[in-house]
Amino acid sequence: MDALTISVILLWAAVLALGLMLWALSRQVGVLFERVAPMGALVTDAGPAVGAPSPVLALTGLQSEHVPIGGPQAQPTLLFFLAPTCPVCKKLIPILKALARDEDKGLRVVLASDGDADHLQFIREQGLTHLPYVLSTELGMSYRVSRLPYAVLMDRQGTVTAKGLVNSREQLDSLLNAQDMGTPTIQQYLGDPAQHAH
Questions:
Q1: 68 forms bridges with which residues in the sheet?
Q2: Number of domains making up the chain
Q3: Which helix H or strand E contains 112, and what residues bound it?
């Protein structure tokens, strides 16, 4: 009985030690994730390159509005690809609406999607009736959009100034910051010592 009692005590001690180690490891993983979390939008090589002209398309929005893409525009354009079934897209909608309202940004926000979802109901539910919303497979193919949410920023001449996958407010802001600093990505700016001399 003494040997059995000792072995049970040792087993419980081992279980408690493993539990403490697992707790400490999970804390370290959380700290590591915060340190290495991506700061900027995740740029892909597909589609028109940064610095290249955007494809020029004359599209019609869901509410029969004329939505030109590419070419000279009165304001810079943020083209945001989303889907009604994408939870991350829905999380970014309040930020997009705030960007469209912010007169200091002087930014035209255009929403783009495709598929068979009830997009009209989606824009009503999300309060997006004041933003251009286009359904165009051709537009998504022109930019080689394979994952969502994806954003493309164009200047007034229709040149692509920044682009990438955006999963958070910080990544969306990084596109605007990259344009303001005249660099394709925040990561490239931080990695180029010449940029810091200015």
A1: 58
A2: 2
A3: strand 108-113
